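Hi L., both proteins are below.
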Amino acid sequence: MPSGKNIKLILYELLQFAALIVPVFVIMERFGRLIRDVRGRDLTAYWLVVAASIAYVTSATLLVWVPLKYVTLKQRRFISEITQWRPTALAYIILCTLPCSAILIASSKVQVDDGVRLDLFTELPVSLVLMSLICVDIIERIRPYSLDSDLDMAGPVLTHLEQVTTVTGQLHTDEVPNGVTQDHPEVRNPPRPAIRLTTNPRVTSMAYLYSSSSRPRAYSGPLGFFWRRDGRGEVFVDTFLFWMDTVEMVRVAGEPSVFYSAWVFPVYILAFMSTLRMVITPQNPLLSFAGFALQDFPFFIIRVALIAVFGYVTPVLYVLKNVLVSLTFIYFTYLTRLRIFKRQSMF
């Protein structure tokens, strides 16, 4: 009988493989139906598109996905030295998200050129692409953890005590007379042992947001189930929040006034560029700059332009979010380092 570790591995790999091939098949099938209807019910064009999607998925799986998975799982060659970015996420974005975005743009161009609006790319295929992207991100985040044990991310954990000589104790040791040896201890103030607090390596930086002396770590009363928490569930919440801005941008591209215009090109291109943030590991400090450069600042520019051209096709709340995140990133990261801001801090 396979072990739990092998079952978890097989489950993760099947889910990631399904997230790779299903969006491509759905988007290509919709595109084949679009080409068929535009060309007057031409079934040959439809089956050519379907055959091209099958050939693409087969080639991408055998030539890129399977070899990459083998090298990643076996930790072979240069993969074992990669710690700041995720090769699987990069491969997924290139093999699935990029062609799906290109097909969505091509579908808009085909309909605009022929003067028809068949509305084959509604909410379902777009949401399927985004949901598959989110699932791959979640799997990559929870892969190091077990499915049948608690993942406590509440704060620092005391793992062992180590006696460390303090500075005061070292000074008293240096002041001992030459005649006093270890066999005749006559030191009045022996060095005090200090406790070194070490943290669990699995504790993330976000854990300190939840650790507080005012809230207990555990509660055994009748309402103790309200205090229960697990880091794996928080990974799901954090991942969905991580992608909400991109989801809203793709939703704007689905508006008929935007989808059947030239504005669909920059909207989908910027939405795809924001997905590149998934390649960076969540603990990487570069993620903050990537969020500013690939999402918040470009999204702010394109949203202001869309509101000026089409009206309120996107909520003003997201515009405020983009501008506030961009300004705070610039201020706290760069402006506070200037001499004029070092004299008196506002925060």
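That was the first. Here is the second:
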Amino acid sequence: MKIRQSNGDTLTCKVYIHENKKEENFIVSIPDIFFSIQFDYELYGEALTEHLYLHLFNMLDDKEANELAMRIAQWTSEV
């Protein structure tokens, strides 16, 4: 499991990223905003960013949701 610190203008939180290589997916959890999501390896790049944004938009404002979605997409591509 990787733990990353996301520092935005209005939100600072820890992002927990677990890669399940056997099932080829990621589980991302952000306890500070009561958010978690699971997605397959097949979802990456712009499609992943958009998918994450749509889920985060329900909890955060537009700018924070977009920034956090881009960070998570970047971090999961590095793992």
